[in-house]
Amino acid sequence: xxxNRQLIIALGSNxxxxxxMRKAIDLLQEYFSGKMVFSRMMWTDPIGVESDKFLNxxxxxxxTLSLDAISRLLDNIEKSLHSTKEEHRQSxxxxxxxxxxxxxxxxxxxxxxxxxxxxxxxxxxxx
Length: 127
Fold this sequence. Notes:
Layout: E1 5-13, H1 17-31, E2 37-38, E3 42-44, E4 54-63, H2 67-80, H3 85-89, E5 96-102, E6 105-106, H4 115-125
Antiparallel strand pairs: 1-4, 1-5, 2-4, 3-4, 5-6
């Protein structure tokens, strides 16, 4: 059995942003038992793509799920919102949900260099 670990995930959307973020948050709360806490939502300019602004937030929850199980769950949420890798390649991001920290391990290291990630992460730690 896996011990309880803190999970931090990043969410972002650049099309129908508020609607897609709300749907993703609702699904995350439905799938994760325990208290999931969300940062505020922050509008950011796109990085490396031409698109509308992104709406972003972070979430944290304590979980006993394995990293693989969480990855499958997040992929399923993205698919349920009809967000595809092909659309992402075309800079259409209905929803993107990434694990950025699992226990002590940081993931998506390049995302940590983005100022909004660090700002929201520091705020999330205080919640």
